[in-house]
Amino acid sequence: MRKFRNIFANKYLLTGTAFVIWMLFFDRNDVSLQLKRIHELNKLQKSEKIMTQQIADTKHELDLLKTNPETLEKYAREKYLMKKDDEDLFIVSVDSSLIR
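Above: the chain sequence. Below: its structure as tokens.
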């Protein structure tokens, strides 16, 4: 019993324990907030990788559109539904609620 009394009477141990408890639970930058920030950082890094890949794909597509007239024609037909004068255009749309 005296051993426990000596441990709790040690002011450095008490101060250190109080400091650790304060930093873990009560501080403005506590552990749960740090974990949330790490999770958010990981999410943002993944998003950055995806965006970088999309930028590279878009630059490649732009380069093809600038240099290749067949690609430009294909792009205009697919994206803007353009057609030649002697062509008929049929648009087929599928209701996504019917697809399972």
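The helical segments are 2-9, 11-26, 31-67, 69-80.
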